């Protein structure tokens, strides 16, 4: 945890950025790089019937760490993806409550 879901980004692109991104995010979140999961979701935009690839959108599921950490996290994700030539990158956060998140049947909170 945190879990990052990437849309509109090819797995080959993300592989290039994943390790440096995890290292930067680990500093922001004060945790190890092995705490992050990053998944690419295949999406096809059907607006207008063109079947184009979706725009870069990253959904971050995490336990809240405050607005400063959230801003730094979003900036780090955006900067790493911009290095890949991506533009108009959107990042959204979904916050979990520790008492509602279970690992192996046990609540985290």
How is this structure best described in words?
32% of the residues lie in helices and 26% in strands. The protein is built from two helices and six strands; from the N terminus they run βαββαβββ. Strand 1, helix 1 and strand 2 form a beta-alpha-beta unit. The longest helix has 19 residues. The protein starts with a strand and ends with a strand. The mean pLDDT is 92.
What is the secondary structure topology, with strand pairs?
Layout: E1 3-7, H1 11-29, E2 37-41, E3 57-63, H2 67-82, E4 90-96, E5 102-103, E6 106-107
Parallel strand pairs: 1-2, 3-4
Antiparallel strand pairs: 1-3, 5-6
Helix pairs in contact: 1-2
C-alpha Rg (nearest Å): 15 Å
Please indicate the percent range of residues in DSSP E strands (runs of 2 or more): 25-35%
Total count of helical runs of at least 4 residues: 2
Taking the sheet with the most strands, its summary is: 4 strands, mixed
Largest sheet: spatial strand order: 2-1-3-4
- Poorly predicted runs: none
Beta strand count? 6
Class by SSE composition:
alpha/beta
Protein name: DUF1904 family protein
Pfam family, one: DUF1904
Organism: Paenibacillus terricola
InterPro entries: DUF1904, Tautomerase/MIF_sf
Descriptive key words:
single chain, 109 residues, alpha/beta, two-stranded antiparallel sheet, 2 helices, 6 strands, 26% strand
Summarize the structure.
By secondary structure, the chain is an alpha/beta fold. It has helices at residues 11-29, 67-82, and strands at residues 3-7, 37-41, 57-63, 90-96, 102-103, 106-107. The longest helix has 19 residues, at 11-29.
């Amino acid at each position: 945890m945190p879990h990052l879901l990437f849309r509109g980004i090819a797995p080959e692109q993300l592989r290039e950025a994943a390790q440096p991104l995890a290292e930067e995010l680990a500093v922001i979140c004060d945790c190890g790089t092995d705490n992050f999961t990053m998944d690419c979701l295949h999406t096809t935009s059907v607006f207008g019937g063109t079947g184009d690839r979706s725009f870069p959108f990253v959904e971050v599921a995490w336990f809240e760490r405050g607005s400063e950490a959230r801003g730094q996290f979003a900036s780090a994700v955006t900067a790493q993806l911009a290095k890949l030539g991506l533009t108009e990158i959107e990042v959204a956060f979904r916050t979990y409550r520790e008492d509602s998140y279970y690992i192996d049947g046990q609540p985290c909170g």
